[in-house]
Structures are given as C-alpha cells and as structure tokens.
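Annex B. Sample input.
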Amino acid sequence: MNRLNVPQEGGCRCGQVRLKISAAPIITMACHCTGCQKMSSSAFSLSAAIPAEGFEVIAGEPVIGGLHGATRHYFCPHCLTWMFTRPEGMDWFVNLRSTMLDDTSGIAPFVETFTSEKLPWVATSAMHSYETFPPMEAFGGLMQEFAERTASA
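Annex B, continued. Sample output.
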C-alpha cells in the first residue's frame, strides 16, 4: 500500500479550481455504484477521505452538481470536473476525488464499495470489498487498518 505525501495540491481539468490537502487520508475507496459510474463517466470513482481541517479550496469557486440534496457534490464551474463531495451528516471529512491531486502515485483504493453494481470486467487492488456500502460499525476497524498499512509503507 502506497502512502500519499502531504501537503499536496491538485485541481480540476482546466485548472480554474485548485485545492490543497494538508492531512493524510483516513481511508481510500473505489465506488462501483451506477451513480458514481455516471458522474465520473467511468467504471468507478476513486476517493480519499480527507479530514475537513486538512482540506481547502485555494483558487476558484466550485459549484454544486450531481445530486442537489443534503450530500453535496462539488464541480468546477468551467470544465465541470467532479472534484469532491461533502456527505450529509459527516462534516468531519471531505471525500476528495483522488485523481484531482497533482501527484496520484500514492493513491490506491483500500476499500471498494457497491461491487454488486460493478462492471463485470473491472478489477481493483482494494483489500476489502463490499456488495453495497460497508456497515457504519466496520469503519473504525477499516480506518485503523488503513492507518497501520500506510504508516508502514
């Protein structure tokens, strides 16, 4: 398992929205749900859960896109790149699309979700797989294992 170096910057495809992370991810994931497939125009979305205090937008003004409910998906207003999500009721972290980072060499999904909806030809290197979303009580152990594995990387 690779370790993501911080601090690090990233941005959307056109570069109008830039962001910075100053805290390491608490977990990385690949989501195979059909919603993520449609929003990412790909087989799955990649994300890194970044502690909220370690995430900031440093240039530009992202806009809400995708779902317009309590969970907010943020996009560049110009190139419409899906950049990050602020999940409802979980304001302690930001779910960054990890491919937004300038250096993606330390990113690999630790957990994959919604494998029940995954395209049949897709394979990831994730260490844990769930047919839907992991039960909330599993996250403490998953985050602990992720921290231990990345600390020794």
